[in-house]
Design brief:
10 helices
Length: 292
């Protein structure tokens, strides 16, 4: 594979961890409801390979996508992995036989999930593991409470040489601070997009500390973003609304890393096109008003 360089640049999370700000989220490679095999396995493999060919060096995944299927697809498509590719996974949940999401966060359960990721990705050590907590009534709201026991369990696995770096997901600022008191945190992965900006203060705080902020559902998740303002700006710029929404995130703060997901080549190309789009000041002002 011959990779190109993406114009959105890179972000360095640690001395040995530099990734493209435009990444790829592998969740949608699994079947409906992120459960079962993909509709088109060949295209799923092609999407992963094209993402890397186009210069993406940051792939986000989890063994509970499928489950196992997404990680196995990544291994099939990309192993032996390019030297500059970084795979970021997460633990804290599993799937039951019906596909429901089940929280499993005891130290022993987290250890098992780390080993599952290692096995299905075909790796000896994981680049980054995010502790996925929170969820709330909507599945993406942080829930208050201590995460010390769970994060300390991952920190021990880091000391054991199974994980290089740690992150947290679906957390509030207090939980980020608690995790950082146990071990370095290189990234925070929370729900955030142009229409849902509850983490504005956290984005700024993390930027000042040199910590990456990785918004999941940057295009709205299972309910795609809809906005007349977004549509109007896109029409003026000759771009798609989704490309504009991603470009807004890239310009929102230099520590924001994107992981938009898709299972089709056409949509992948549309997402990556956002890396080439610069939003003028007037259009940024319009877009900033979407969240109210």
């Amino acid at each position: 594979m011959t990779a190109t360089t993406l114009p959105s640049g890179t972000f360095t999370m640690a001395d040995d961890l530099t990734v493209t700000r435009m990444g790829y989220g592998a969740m949608q490679l699994a079947g409906p409801g992120v459960f079962g095999p993909p509709k088109d396995r060949d295209e799923a493999v092609a999407v992963l390979r094209e993402a890397v060919d186009r210069g993406v060096t940051h792939i986000d995944t989890a063994d509970f996508y499928g489950p196992q299927i997404t990680n196995q697809l990544i291994r099939e498509a990309l192993s032996p992995y390019p030297a500059d590719l970084r795979i970021v996974t997460k633990v804290g949940a599993v799937r039951d036989d019906a596909g429901a999401w089940v929280q499993e966060r005891s130290p022993a359960q987290l250890r098992d999930q780390v080993h599952d990721n290692l096995r299905n990705l075909g790796l000896d050590v994981l680049d980054v593991v995010n502790l996925r907590v929170g969820g709330g009534h909507d599945g993406h709201t942080p829930e208050p409470g201590s995460i010390a026991e769970q994060f300390a369990a991952l920190a021990q696995l880091q000391q054991d040489g199974l994980i290089r770096h740690l992150g947290v997901s679906t957390v509030n600022a207090d939980q980020v601070a608690q995790a950082r008191s146990i071990a370095p945190v290189v990234c925070v992965q929370n729900y955030y997009n142009i229409a849902s900006r509850g983490d504005d203060d956290l984005v700024e705080s993390l930027a000042a500390q040199g910590i990456a902020y990785v918004p999941y559902f940057p295009l709205g998740g299972f309910t795609p973003l809809q906005s007349q303002t977004l549509d109007g700006v896109a029409a003026c710029l000759g771009a798609t609304p989704m490309s504009v929404a991603l470009a807004w995130l890239l310009q929102r703060s230099p520590n924001i890393l994107l992981i938009p997901g898709t299972s089709t080549l056409d949509h992948l190309r549309e997402n990556i096109a956002a890396a080439t789009l610069t939003l003028p000041a007037a259009e940024l002002t319009e877009l900033n008003a979407i969240a109210g």
